[in-house]
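I hope you will forgive my troubling you with a question about protein structure. The record follows directly beneath this note:
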Amino acid sequence: MSARSFFDTDVLLYADDESAPVKQRRERRDGHFFSKPHLQTQSAKITGFAKHATLCCRFSVGAMLKGIEIPYHRGLHRFAIFTACATLVLIVAGALVTSNDAGLSVPDWPTTFGSFYKMPQMVGGVKYEHGHRMFAEFVGLLTIVLSVWTWRVEKRRWLRFLGLAALATVITQGILGGLTVLFFLPAPISSAHAAVAQTFFCIAVSIAVFTGRRWVEEQPRTQPDQRRPALFTLTLLSIFVLYVQLILGAMFRHHGLSWWPHVINAGVVAIVLSWTAVRAISVYPEVDAVRRPAITMLGLMVAQLCLGFLAFITRVMWAVENAQPELPMIISTVVHVAVGALLLATTVVLAIQVWRHVPVAFEERVPGQDPVAA
């Protein structure tokens, strides 16, 4: 069949909003089948139908394959939760070392008073520093098991690599912890040690979310976000300002920076996180996966601001006259660090859920027509 005879035949074009086929006959006009505007209109219809069919096919097949190919591993999920909880305890143990000025109570690394296996007398600052080391080794062992377990049973390639990232992070964390001792607690290395610790905690929490039954088996309810800035952008901004706050606080605690940058940035954190939480709660109240972490993030932020004020009073105002760390200062600063870690991890979870349930809408231009939100 020649090209000319082909275009003389009837062609059926299906529109999205019509129940019956729309029949059109192509006409020849001096060797040309269509004028340019008419050709653009028909091309736009065909393109729109193809995109609609592709999206429907993608979501339906994706849902089917998701239920078939991604099994839920309850043991792996519970182990990931346990690892995340153990990491939070390790962060508290590290905060106790700093708050009690016990960072150099064990002056060598990787040995402890020259031995790899002998238990030292757990007195004074040694019980904080060596206890922190022992629990860090335990978390490192948990991470090895989690990484290997994830690699063996998970079909999602990106999640297997996330398990390897957790292992690489905990190894980096251990090396930074050793360098803080070998170089006598330099502020930059000690602050990096604190930041990487909370990064590992966020990775462990993320693995626990990704291996959960709800993430594996639930079909997400997507609601495109057409607002600017997008909610996902706000969650990323929230994570960024929290990391800045984490580094400023660590520099202050390790005597590398004054207190006022940390206090000023606390106001920035309060504004950005409030903006993010209010947007998520008010615009997407029916999406539980977004609303719940947003409410949790807002509550933790308020608690963190109160704890920060208490830590400032006990550490800056009262501690000037004290030769040794007092119990109120230790408690307030340790709880402040722990709640800060929970706040950062909750914000990461919110960003993950927003990425899944509230995709960013974009506009697509069709020649000769107004922009259409896709």
Observations:
- The chain has a mean pLDDT of 83.
- The chain has three domains: 3-61, 74-218, 224-360.
